[in-house]
Amino acid sequence: MGYQYRQRDVPRRRDREFKIGNGRLSGYGSLFFSSMSLAGVLSYLYPAYLTTQELRAGYDAVFLQEVLKYSMWLALFLGAITFVINRKKRLGFTGIVITLVAFALGGYNVPLRGIEAQRLSLGLDWLILTFMGSVLIFTALENIFPKYRQQPILRDEWELDFGYFCFNHLLISAVLLFGNFVVAQSQWAMNHNLHSLVQSMPLALQVLLLLLCADFVLYWEHRLYHEFPKLWGFHAVHHSVETMDWLAGSRSHVTTVFVERTLVMLALYFLGADKIALDIYVAIAALQAIVIHSNLGFNWGFLKYLVVTPQYHHWHHSSENPAIDTNYAAHTPLFDRLFGTYHLPGKYWPAEYGTTKKLPKTFIGQFIYPFKNLFL
Q: Between vectors from CA 175 to CA 170 and to CA 181, what angle results, nearest 5°?
């Protein structure tokens, strides 16, 4: 008899819902905008040490100062609302205090200055832009088109995954530095005839080639983590999340972040595509990494057979027997089909997520876990 697929049970958590009048929306909103504002002010004050050189060329610092201004005033306004309705005043008070600190440091009037190049810096600007964009876009989408409508925004362990989000985004400069070092040491293996051939292709074909090449590397890197017990501990951290949403994909051990991005960077540089094609691939990959972990119930139609979708990747995170060690691909199901690891049972979604063996629930505990497993 075949496996009996079940519906996932998501109990309603009224104590975590965002409803008008309960203070949670204004309280957390004040905390969100005030924290992002303070981080923005610090980025303007110390750009050489807190911003990413590769990213700075891609945004308008003057326009973002205007965004900063409205964010600061909005944080104060939302904080004041918590006192008016007498709900979540601690959150509102904290947001107001953080915003006042940002004003004291110069606020949105911090003068723009020239930036001395630093080999290593914290990607605070990368953190701010990606977090604000992700919260505003994907929180809205997950509430408009949810797979599990009862699942709260502040689900279990969201604080842990937020910590991973911040930590791994702040390390973006170190990851790029390490990846560029590996690429520089591999110049001897680069084939300039291949580079010329790839660059002669239409842009769309270059992007498609980059997607397939990256997916091939990611597939086998991913599969090795699953099939070698000594490596599994590092990837198990990512699988330990038991509630899927846009933030869940952030939970990754720092070792796997460095390894994965460096291997992909190396493979793509071997191809030698145009910079614009690389930039398009990076944008697609970053967006898809968020989408496939998200709590989105879109009907993808025939596209689910061409690209990795939330349903497809959710099965990879399932702890149910038919789904274990399947769906390794990140961009397209092609390599899972070719190598016999494809699992997409019709309309069904997983009932259970996480690892069969529970991991520690803290950042430090999860950081240490794979090393203990490695040497035992």
A: 150
- Give the tens place of pLDDT for each residue, 119-139: 778 889 989 999 999 999 999
pLDDT tops 70 at residue 376: no
Do 345 and 214 belong together in one domain?
Answer: yes
What's the whole-number mean pLDDT along residues 209-236? 96
- 156 domain residue, yes or no: no
What's the structural domain count of the chain? 2
Using only C-alpha atoms, what is the Rg of the chain?
22
Q: Has residue 16 got a pLDDT over 80? A: yes
Helix (H, G, I), strand (E, B) or coil at 341: coil
Task: Evaluate whether residue 286 is within a structural domain.
Answer: yes
Spatial distance between the Cα atoms of 289 and 309, rounded to a whole number of angstroms: 10
- Look up the domain containing 354 and give its range: 172-375
Note whether 301 and 364 are same-domain residues: yes
Region of residue 66 (phi > 0: left; psi between -120 and 50: alpha; otherwise: beta): alpha
Task: Find tokens 């390390």 and name the residue.
Answer: 171
